[in-house]
Specification:
Strand order of the largest sheet: 4-5-6-9-8-7
CATH topology of the largest domain: Chorismate lyase
CATH superfamily of the largest domain: Chorismate lyase-like
Number of domains: 2
CATH class of the largest domain: Alpha Beta
CATH architecture of the largest domain: 3-Layer(aba) Sandwich
Radius of gyration: 22 Å
Structural class: alpha+beta
Order of helices and strands: HHHEEEHEHEEHHEHEEE
Mean pLDDT: 91
Helix content: 25-40%
Strand content: 25-35%
Number of helices: 8
Distance between the termini: 47 Å
Largest sheet: 6 strands, antiparallel
């Protein structure tokens, strides 16, 4: 079967992207450069690039050129959502980095969700979640310190929330509820996520409970809309 020139070129460029020659967000060579490389006219190159755009492998910026699309990680929201598990399922390498860890007094919403008094101290944890060294989310979590003795010490040894909870006696926990909304990145969020200010975020507000239905974690996660898809599973 005859292979059209544009199809061959499209397949070659995709192969180079898939092999890691071009990273996510990296600019591709120009149409003229591809035209010289493959010995065809720009119309053929444009058709090859448009095919890659159609398949969401690349995207174009008017007046700037063509860029490699960012891979989207599927984050599952179910009874037991786990950041690391979602990334591993997508074939990625997960990493979490704690940027703030301290005792604070909860606000009214936090105290109400955790079913504690406003005078009780809680553990505030803020961190960044990475996929293959690319930041994909910012999370802010609140934990009732009196209900989970030893959790602060566990966090100082381990940045994984699930592992820290396990080491503190919480062997299993489930999601009580999730509320999903959206917003645009402010300057601080854009800096942490290494993106432009005004990029869309998928925001989740969550409450997790232990096997006694006691709240053990309340918090928020801000996912980069261009890097993450939320998949809600019915249990």
């Amino acid at each position: 079967m005859k292979t059209f020139a544009w199809k061959y070129i499209s397949d070659q460029i995709y192969k180079e992207i898939n092999e890691g020659r071009y990273s996510e967000g990296q600019k591709l060579p120009t149409e003229n450069e591809y035209s010289l490389r493959f010995g065809v006219n720009r119309h053929t190159i444009r058709r090859a690039l448009n095919e890659l755009i159609r398949k969401s492998y690349i995207y174009s910026r008017k007046g700037s050129g063509f860029y490699v699309s960012e891979k989207k990680t599927i984050h599952f929201i179910n009874q037991r959502p786990r950041f690391t598990k979602s990334l591993v399922a997508s074939g990625d390498t997960p990493l979490t980095k704690i940027i703030r860890l301290e005792y604070i007094k909860p606000n009214e919403e936090e105290a109400k969700n955790l079913k504690i008094k406003k005078e009780e101290m809680v553990i505030f944890l803020e961190g960044i979640g990475y996929r293959n060294n690319t930041p994909i989310c910012i999370y802010k979590k609140i934990f009732p310190s009196n209900r989970i003795p030893g959790l602060m010490a566990s966090f100082k040894k381990n940045s994984s929330i699930s592992k820290a909870l396990f080491d503190s006696g919480i062997k299993d926990y489930i999601r009580s509820y999730s509320i999903i909304s959206s917003k645009l990145t402010n300057p601080v969020e854009a800096f942490l996520l290494k993106c432009k200010q005004g990029e869309p975020l998928i925001c989740t507000k969550n409450l997790n409970v232990n096997n006694k239905k006691e709240p053990i974690e309340f918090g928020y996660t801000l996912f980069m809309g261009s890097r993450v898809e939320i998949y809600i599973e019915n249990n």
